[in-house]
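debug: dumping io for the single-chain case to check the tokenizer round-trip. Nothing else runs in this session.
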Amino acid sequence: MNNNILKIFTLVAILSLCSTRVANAQFSAVRGNVLMLATGTVNMGASFNINSKLSVDIAVAGNFIPYGDFQFKFGAIQPGLRIWLRQTEYGHFFSPHLTMAYYDSRIKGREYIGWAAGAGVSYGYCWPLKKRLSIAAEIGASVMYCRDVNQNIKYDHTVDHIISTTTRVILAPTKFEVSLVYLF
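debug: decoded output
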């Protein structure tokens, strides 16, 4: 029964994507999150239009710069689907997305090395400035599965060194961006 429902859903999705008209104005877009750049995080996103109301979105980000006692090195990728209420790259949108990340953080004498994966949803708005330039804002959260190893960085050899593995599921903010968008 579930297999038949999946086949019907897949067929309807393929037919709906093939039967809609593609927006003639833009085919794809690239963007950079200025809030992430302010923290030293290198990032880039790209969107590819499927039709006049849907676009596939992928973003990558990484920060490998230490900040003294506090450091948070990470690499992340976030694929998603943007559902536009008016047309692609204009106005309100909702986006179900996936998040996958690797991290190495050092906070208050402890080191956490691990990975996280999850799924979430975000809301955003895109303001066109010129024919090929826009500003987009987006905020979202995900349910994340995290697994990491944590240890005490500053330990005395006379005391046992404790290393533990932690697995947890958390609700975390995964999208918080103000981006400059260039349309092709």
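debug: round-trip ok. The mean pLDDT is 84.
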